[in-house]
Amino acid sequence: MKKILAVVLALALVLALGAVSFADFEPDYEKTITLIVPQGAGGGTDTQARQLVEAMKQVSGFDNIIVENVTGGSTGIGTNQVIDAEPDGYTLLMYGTYVICGTMTGNTDGYKGLDFLDGLSLEPFMIAVPTESPYQTLDDLIQAAKADPGKIVLGNAGATATTGVVAYGLSIACDNAFNVVPFNGGAELIPAVLGGHADAGIFSQSEVQANADGLRPLVFLGDGHSVIPEFAEVPNMADAGYGDLVVPGGCFRGICTTKGSPEEMEKWVADVVEEAYNSELFQGWLNGAGLLGQFSKLEDFEAFNLDMIETMKPIIQATGLAVGEYAE
């Protein structure tokens, strides 16, 4: 009787809020949907996850949706927690290109143990330094690194995070001139650079924007130029004289769940995420953060991911971090 009352009250709340009805399936309103972010709180991935969850609550009326940060293993620990969860569709992963990196470098079974629900966005990267840094351009930074190999610390969000692959790729292209130091997600990388423990870092542009008082971008790694007005004049790699240096330009993010979860639940979550993605709340944040919409759903998201795998494989192989079948 208690469970029936809970469902009735939850449905009444949905109607009262004017939220969207998703097909004929109803989730268990006594359960909690947990979105695992495999990085620390405060970074770009975490911020996007929390914005999405608020929009999911708004459009569905399902209030028991939370974000949980599970750090470590260059995002592998959080990813593995989702893979090992009960396959019921209530444990979600904030998926990203870092999962592809982690799979190819042996930190997780990654995409092999996940079902794909919704692709969301692409966030361009930037190389940034503290505002008081003597390095005014990317060339200044690279020439300083080459002049004294190993002295200039280039920070990133994890050895097998996408920013880690960028950092190692950049250093390899510069004759291993940089001291590449991985941190535990953007939440640790940001204070490390601000505090002078790293000379420069590879950041998502939303992280640079959120710390504009302390970080100064040297170069925009995405295609073209940033759509954020204050970053519109930041040079891209070609502008900076390094157009022949090919590194991943950003981090893709989406939502996955434990492989083998019930199809009805997966479809319900995918529909909720799609409605949340298209909501005024999330789109307003997405545009303000300068992220590029890259929506796909279910089979289309899985196909998109396969294309990303093929794109990332040669880059990760070039860093020397790939293992097993991916090293071939």
How would you describe this structure in keywords?
D-Maltodextrin-Binding Protein, domain 2; 11 helices; 10-stranded mixed β-sheet; 328 residues; alpha/beta; disordered N terminus
Please summarize what this structure is.
By secondary structure, this protein is an alpha/beta fold.
In words, what does this structure look like?
- The protein has 328 residues and is of the alpha/beta class.
- Helix 2 (44-60) packs across helix 9, helix 2 runs antiparallel to helix 10 (280-288) and helix 4 packs across helix 11 (299-319).
- It has eleven helices and ten strands.
- The model is unreliable at 1-21 (pLDDT under 50).
- It folds into two domains: 2-14 and 23-122 and 251-327, 3-Layer(aba) Sandwich (D-Maltodextrin-Binding Protein, domain 2), CATH 3.40.190.150; 124-231, Periplasmic binding protein-like II (D-Maltodextrin-Binding Protein, domain 2), CATH 3.40.190.10.
- Strands 1, 2, 3, 4, 5, 6, 7, 8, 9 and 10 form a ten-stranded mixed β-sheet that branches.
